[in-house]
Amino acid sequence: MDKKLIGQLIKSLDDGLNQEEVDELNSTLATSKPAKKELERLQDIRQSIQSEKTESFRPYFAQRVMRRIARLKEIKHESDLFKSLMVVFRPVAVSTSFIIAVILIYNISTGNFTSLESILGIPEYNLENITYAAY
Amino acid sequence: MNYSELIKSSTTGDHQAFQKLVESLEPLVASTVIGMLGNSPEAEDVGQETFIRLYKSLSSFKGDSSIETYVTRIAINLSINELKKRKRRSMIFKSAETDIDLGNLSDHKNPQDEEANRQLIEYGLKKLKPDFKAVIVLRLINGYSVKETSKVLNVAEGTVLSRLARAQGKLRKILTPLLGDHRG
Protein backbone atom coordinates (compact mmCIF):
# COMPACT_ATOMS: atom_id res chain seq x y z
CA MET A 1 0.00 0.00 0.00
CA ASP A 2 1.03 3.61 -0.67
CA LYS A 3 3.34 4.82 2.13
CA LYS A 4 1.85 8.31 2.04
CA LEU A 5 -1.64 6.91 2.53
CA ILE A 6 -0.53 4.78 5.48
CA GLY A 7 1.12 7.85 7.01
CA GLN A 8 -2.09 9.83 6.59
CA LEU A 9 -4.18 7.04 8.10
CA ILE A 10 -1.91 6.94 11.14
CA LYS A 11 -1.94 10.73 11.50
CA SER A 12 -5.72 10.83 11.21
CA LEU A 13 -6.00 8.74 14.37
CA ASP A 14 -4.20 11.46 16.34
CA ASP A 15 -5.94 14.44 14.71
CA GLY A 16 -2.68 15.24 12.96
CA LEU A 17 -4.24 16.20 9.60
CA ASN A 18 -5.53 19.55 8.41
CA GLN A 19 -9.05 19.86 7.01
CA GLU A 20 -7.92 19.54 3.40
CA GLU A 21 -6.04 16.31 4.16
CA VAL A 22 -9.00 14.96 6.14
CA ASP A 23 -11.32 15.56 3.16
CA GLU A 24 -8.85 13.91 0.80
CA LEU A 25 -8.49 10.90 3.11
CA ASN A 26 -12.25 10.55 3.57
CA SER A 27 -12.82 10.44 -0.18
CA THR A 28 -10.08 7.79 -0.51
CA LEU A 29 -11.63 5.74 2.27
CA ALA A 30 -15.04 5.95 0.59
CA THR A 31 -13.73 4.36 -2.58
CA SER A 32 -10.80 2.15 -1.51
CA LYS A 33 -11.52 -1.10 0.34
CA PRO A 34 -7.82 -1.84 1.12
CA ALA A 35 -7.48 1.64 2.67
CA LYS A 36 -10.51 0.98 4.85
CA LYS A 37 -9.10 -2.39 5.88
CA GLU A 38 -5.75 -0.80 6.68
CA LEU A 39 -7.46 1.78 8.90
CA GLU A 40 -9.26 -1.00 10.75
CA ARG A 41 -5.98 -2.84 11.22
CA LEU A 42 -4.35 0.29 12.66
CA GLN A 43 -7.29 0.84 14.98
CA ASP A 44 -7.01 -2.78 16.01
CA ILE A 45 -3.32 -2.36 16.89
CA ARG A 46 -4.10 0.79 18.88
CA GLN A 47 -6.89 -0.95 20.74
CA SER A 48 -4.61 -3.86 21.60
CA ILE A 49 -2.02 -1.44 22.99
CA GLN A 50 -4.68 0.40 24.98
CA SER A 51 -5.77 -2.88 26.54
CA GLU A 52 -2.21 -3.37 27.78
CA LYS A 53 -2.84 -0.91 30.60
CA THR A 54 -1.79 -2.27 34.01
CA GLU A 55 -2.85 0.01 36.83
CA SER A 56 -1.11 -1.39 39.87
CA PHE A 57 2.10 -2.87 41.12
CA ARG A 58 2.18 -5.81 43.54
CA PRO A 59 -0.08 -5.40 46.59
CA TYR A 60 1.09 -3.09 49.43
CA PHE A 61 3.12 -0.97 47.03
CA ALA A 62 2.48 2.25 48.98
CA GLN A 63 3.66 0.61 52.22
CA ARG A 64 6.88 -0.49 50.53
CA VAL A 65 7.48 3.05 49.29
CA MET A 66 6.90 4.43 52.80
CA ARG A 67 9.34 1.89 54.27
CA ARG A 68 12.01 2.97 51.80
CA ILE A 69 11.40 6.62 52.68
CA ALA A 70 11.71 5.81 56.41
CA ARG A 71 15.01 4.01 55.73
CA LEU A 72 16.26 7.00 53.74
CA LYS A 73 15.44 9.24 56.70
CA GLU A 74 17.42 6.97 59.06
CA ILE A 75 20.42 7.10 56.74
CA LYS A 76 20.11 10.87 56.54
CA HIS A 77 19.94 11.06 60.35
CA GLU A 78 23.13 8.97 60.64
CA SER A 79 24.96 11.10 58.11
CA ASP A 80 23.80 14.27 59.92
CA LEU A 81 25.27 12.89 63.18
CA PHE A 82 28.53 12.06 61.38
CA LYS A 83 28.65 15.58 59.92
CA SER A 84 28.15 17.24 63.32
CA LEU A 85 30.89 15.04 64.85
CA MET A 86 33.16 16.09 61.98
CA VAL A 87 32.45 19.74 62.74
CA VAL A 88 33.49 19.24 66.38
CA PHE A 89 36.52 17.02 65.85
CA ARG A 90 38.05 18.51 62.72
CA PRO A 91 39.54 21.62 64.45
CA VAL A 92 40.89 19.42 67.27
CA ALA A 93 42.48 17.03 64.72
CA VAL A 94 43.98 19.87 62.68
CA SER A 95 45.45 21.69 65.67
CA THR A 96 46.82 18.43 67.17
CA SER A 97 48.48 17.56 63.85
CA PHE A 98 49.98 21.04 63.74
CA ILE A 99 51.39 20.74 67.29
CA ILE A 100 52.87 17.29 66.49
CA ALA A 101 54.51 18.71 63.36
CA VAL A 102 56.00 21.63 65.34
CA ILE A 103 57.39 19.26 68.02
CA LEU A 104 58.82 16.99 65.30
CA ILE A 105 60.51 19.85 63.49
CA TYR A 106 61.88 21.34 66.71
CA ASN A 107 63.31 18.04 67.95
CA ILE A 108 64.82 17.16 64.58
CA SER A 109 66.36 20.63 64.22
CA THR A 110 67.96 20.40 67.72
CA GLY A 111 69.41 16.98 66.87
CA ASN A 112 67.42 15.24 69.58
CA PHE A 113 66.37 12.17 67.61
CA THR A 114 67.70 9.07 69.23
CA SER A 115 64.32 7.37 69.02
CA LEU A 116 60.84 8.02 67.68
CA GLU A 117 59.62 8.77 71.22
CA SER A 118 62.30 11.39 71.74
CA ILE A 119 61.57 13.00 68.37
CA LEU A 120 57.88 13.23 69.29
CA GLY A 121 58.68 14.31 72.86
CA ILE A 122 56.84 11.34 74.35
CA PRO A 123 58.22 9.92 77.64
CA GLU A 124 59.88 6.55 77.02
CA TYR A 125 58.09 3.85 78.92
CA ASN A 126 58.80 0.16 78.97
CA LEU A 127 56.99 -2.70 80.66
CA GLU A 128 59.22 -2.55 83.75
CA ASN A 129 58.43 1.12 84.43
CA ILE A 130 54.74 0.47 84.13
CA THR A 131 54.93 -2.48 86.57
CA TYR A 132 56.91 -0.33 89.06
CA ALA A 133 54.42 2.49 88.75
CA ALA A 134 51.63 0.10 89.65
CA TYR A 135 53.29 -0.62 93.03
CA MET B 1 -8.58 15.38 50.67
CA ASN B 2 -7.62 16.55 47.18
CA TYR B 3 -4.14 16.56 45.69
CA SER B 4 -3.18 20.08 46.76
CA GLU B 5 -4.18 19.36 50.38
CA LEU B 6 -2.28 16.07 50.35
CA ILE B 7 0.81 17.81 48.93
CA LYS B 8 0.58 20.56 51.53
CA SER B 9 0.27 18.06 54.40
CA SER B 10 3.07 15.91 52.99
CA THR B 11 5.49 18.84 52.87
CA THR B 12 4.87 19.45 56.58
CA GLY B 13 5.94 15.88 57.33
CA ASP B 14 2.55 14.14 57.39
CA HIS B 15 3.47 10.60 56.34
CA GLN B 16 -0.10 9.40 56.09
CA ALA B 17 -0.87 12.18 53.64
CA PHE B 18 2.06 11.15 51.46
CA GLN B 19 1.01 7.51 51.60
CA LYS B 20 -2.46 8.56 50.41
CA LEU B 21 -0.82 10.52 47.60
CA VAL B 22 1.16 7.40 46.61
CA GLU B 23 -2.02 5.30 46.65
CA SER B 24 -3.88 7.81 44.47
CA LEU B 25 -1.06 8.20 41.96
CA GLU B 26 -0.10 4.50 41.83
CA PRO B 27 -2.39 3.63 38.85
CA LEU B 28 -0.88 6.44 36.77
CA VAL B 29 2.71 5.59 37.64
CA ALA B 30 2.11 1.84 37.23
CA SER B 31 0.58 2.21 33.78
CA THR B 32 3.44 4.48 32.71
CA VAL B 33 6.29 2.42 34.09
CA ILE B 34 4.86 -1.02 33.23
CA GLY B 35 3.99 0.29 29.76
CA MET B 36 7.59 1.37 29.31
CA LEU B 37 9.38 -1.57 30.95
CA GLY B 38 6.91 -4.42 30.89
CA ASN B 39 5.69 -6.18 34.00
CA SER B 40 9.11 -6.83 35.53
CA PRO B 41 10.82 -6.45 38.93
CA GLU B 42 12.65 -3.40 37.54
CA ALA B 43 9.28 -1.78 36.89
CA GLU B 44 8.43 -1.99 40.60
CA ASP B 45 11.86 -0.53 41.50
CA VAL B 46 11.39 2.35 39.06
CA GLY B 47 7.88 2.90 40.45
CA GLN B 48 9.24 3.16 43.99
CA GLU B 49 12.08 5.42 42.86
CA THR B 50 9.53 7.68 41.14
CA PHE B 51 7.73 8.27 44.43
CA ILE B 52 10.97 8.75 46.35
CA ARG B 53 11.99 11.43 43.83
CA LEU B 54 8.56 12.98 44.23
CA TYR B 55 8.93 12.94 48.03
CA LYS B 56 12.33 14.63 47.84
CA SER B 57 11.18 17.31 45.41
CA LEU B 58 7.75 17.93 46.87
CA SER B 59 8.86 21.04 48.76
CA SER B 60 10.11 22.58 45.50
CA PHE B 61 6.95 21.62 43.56
CA LYS B 62 5.40 24.95 42.61
CA GLY B 63 2.33 23.64 40.86
CA ASP B 64 3.24 25.04 37.42
CA SER B 65 1.95 21.77 36.03
CA SER B 66 -0.46 19.31 37.62
CA ILE B 67 0.92 16.72 40.03
CA GLU B 68 -0.08 14.00 37.53
CA THR B 69 2.00 15.60 34.78
CA TYR B 70 4.88 16.11 37.21
CA VAL B 71 4.92 12.53 38.48
CA THR B 72 4.46 11.09 34.97
CA ARG B 73 7.47 13.11 33.81
CA ILE B 74 9.58 11.62 36.62
CA ALA B 75 8.32 8.11 35.80
CA ILE B 76 9.03 8.49 32.07
CA ASN B 77 12.55 9.87 32.63
CA LEU B 78 13.44 7.10 35.08
CA SER B 79 11.99 4.46 32.72
CA ILE B 80 14.00 5.82 29.78
CA ASN B 81 17.14 5.66 31.95
CA GLU B 82 16.30 2.07 32.88
CA LEU B 83 15.82 1.14 29.22
CA LYS B 84 19.20 2.66 28.38
CA LYS B 85 20.78 0.68 31.24
CA ARG B 86 19.14 -2.49 29.92
CA LYS B 87 20.52 -1.81 26.47
CA ARG B 88 24.02 -1.28 27.85
CA ARG B 89 23.74 -4.49 29.90
CA SER B 90 22.59 -6.52 26.92
CA MET B 91 25.40 -5.08 24.81
CA ILE B 92 28.00 -5.99 27.42
CA PHE B 93 26.76 -9.42 28.40
CA LYS B 94 25.01 -10.28 25.15
CA SER B 95 22.43 -11.73 27.51
CA ALA B 96 19.39 -13.44 26.15
CA GLU B 97 17.12 -10.60 27.37
CA THR B 98 14.09 -12.81 27.40
CA ASP B 99 12.76 -12.27 23.93
CA ILE B 100 9.32 -13.61 23.29
CA ASP B 101 9.19 -16.93 21.56
CA LEU B 102 7.25 -16.05 18.46
CA GLY B 103 7.43 -19.65 17.27
CA ASN B 104 5.29 -20.74 20.19
CA LEU B 105 2.93 -17.84 19.74
CA SER B 106 2.16 -18.71 16.15
CA ASP B 107 1.06 -22.14 17.36
CA HIS B 108 -1.90 -20.59 19.18
CA LYS B 109 -5.00 -21.58 17.35
CA ASN B 110 -7.48 -19.37 19.15
CA PRO B 111 -7.53 -15.93 17.53
CA GLN B 112 -9.01 -14.47 20.71
CA ASP B 113 -6.12 -15.71 22.80
CA GLU B 114 -5.54 -12.70 25.04
CA GLU B 115 -2.23 -13.89 26.43
CA ALA B 116 -0.77 -14.37 22.95
CA ASN B 117 -2.08 -10.98 21.90
CA ARG B 118 -0.60 -9.33 25.01
CA GLN B 119 2.77 -10.92 24.33
CA LEU B 120 2.70 -9.77 20.72
CA ILE B 121 2.03 -6.20 21.77
CA GLU B 122 4.76 -6.42 24.39
CA TYR B 123 7.10 -7.73 21.71
CA GLY B 124 6.20 -4.86 19.38
CA LEU B 125 6.66 -2.25 22.10
CA LYS B 126 9.99 -3.77 23.09
CA LYS B 127 11.27 -3.17 19.58
CA LEU B 128 10.62 0.58 19.77
CA LYS B 129 13.24 3.14 20.76
CA PRO B 130 12.63 4.66 24.24
CA ASP B 131 11.52 8.07 22.89
CA PHE B 132 8.98 6.47 20.55
CA LYS B 133 7.83 4.09 23.24
CA ALA B 134 7.25 7.05 25.57
CA VAL B 135 4.78 8.73 23.19
CA ILE B 136 2.93 5.46 22.62
CA VAL B 137 2.64 4.82 26.35
CA LEU B 138 1.52 8.35 27.17
CA ARG B 139 -0.88 8.76 24.26
CA LEU B 140 -2.33 5.28 23.85
CA ILE B 141 -1.96 3.60 27.24
CA ASN B 142 -2.34 6.58 29.58
CA GLY B 143 -4.75 8.33 27.27
CA TYR B 144 -3.05 11.73 27.34
CA SER B 145 -3.84 14.15 24.53
CA VAL B 146 -1.08 15.21 22.13
CA LYS B 147 -0.80 18.51 24.01
CA GLU B 148 -0.50 16.80 27.41
CA THR B 149 2.04 14.35 26.01
CA SER B 150 4.13 17.24 24.69
CA LYS B 151 4.00 18.85 28.15
CA VAL B 152 5.14 15.70 29.91
CA LEU B 153 7.99 15.09 27.47
CA ASN B 154 8.82 18.76 27.17
CA VAL B 155 8.83 18.65 23.36
CA ALA B 156 6.77 20.41 20.69
CA GLU B 157 3.36 19.00 19.71
CA GLY B 158 4.65 18.49 16.17
CA THR B 159 7.44 16.31 17.53
CA VAL B 160 4.90 14.22 19.44
CA LEU B 161 2.81 13.78 16.29
CA SER B 162 5.76 12.77 14.16
CA ARG B 163 7.06 10.34 16.82
CA LEU B 164 3.56 8.89 17.14
CA ALA B 165 3.32 8.39 13.39
CA ARG B 166 6.75 6.79 13.15
CA ALA B 167 6.17 4.59 16.19
CA GLN B 168 2.82 3.37 14.91
CA GLY B 169 4.30 2.82 11.47
CA LYS B 170 6.98 0.66 13.00
CA LEU B 171 4.47 -1.22 15.18
CA ARG B 172 2.32 -1.82 12.09
CA LYS B 173 5.33 -3.26 10.28
CA ILE B 174 6.23 -5.53 13.19
CA LEU B 175 2.76 -6.60 14.17
CA THR B 176 0.79 -6.85 10.93
CA PRO B 177 2.26 -10.18 9.80
CA LEU B 178 2.03 -11.58 13.32
CA LEU B 179 -1.49 -10.35 13.99
CA GLY B 180 -2.41 -11.65 10.58
CA ASP B 181 -1.32 -15.13 11.66
CA HIS B 182 -3.50 -14.89 14.73
CA ARG B 183 -6.55 -13.27 13.39
CA GLY B 184 -6.77 -15.11 10.14
Topology overview:
The complex is a heterodimer of chains A (about 140) and B (about 180).
Chain A lengths: L2 H10 L6 H13 L1 H18 L10 H49 L6 H5 L6 H8 L1
Helix pairs in contact in A: 1-3
Chain B lengths: L2 H9 L3 H23 L3 H17 L9 H27 L8 H4 L8 H13 L3 H12 L4 H8 L3 H27 L1
Helix pairs in contact in B: 1-2, 2-3, 2-4, 2-7, 3-4, 4-8, 6-9, 7-9, 8-9
Structural notes for this entry:
The complex is a heterodimer of chains A (135) and B (184). With 135 residues, chain A is mainly α. Chain A has helices at 3-12, 19-31, 33-50, 61-109, 116-120, 127-134. Helix content of chain A is 76%, strand content 0%. In chain A, helix 1 (3-12) packs across helix 3 (33-50). Chain B is mainly α and 184 residues long.
Please name the defining characteristics of this protein:
heterodimer, A: 135 residues, mainly alpha, 6 helices, 76% helix, rod-shaped, B: 184 residues, globular
Structural category of chain B: mainly alpha
Q: What is the mean predicted local confidence, pLDDT of chain B?
A: 85
Number of strands of chain B: 0
Largest interface: A-B, 33 and 44 residues
Distance between the termini of chain A: 107 Å
The chain-level structural class of chain A is: mainly alpha
Q: What integer is the average pLDDT of chain A?
A: 84
Oligomer: heterodimer
Question: Which sheet architecture does the biggest sheet of chain B show?
Answer: none
Query: Helix and strand string of chain A, N-terminal first?
Result: HHHHHH
Shape of chain B: globular
SSE order of chain B, as H and E?
Answer: HHHHHHHHH
Q: Brief overview, please?
A:
The complex is a heterodimer of chains A (135) and B (184). Chain A has 135 residues and is mainly α.
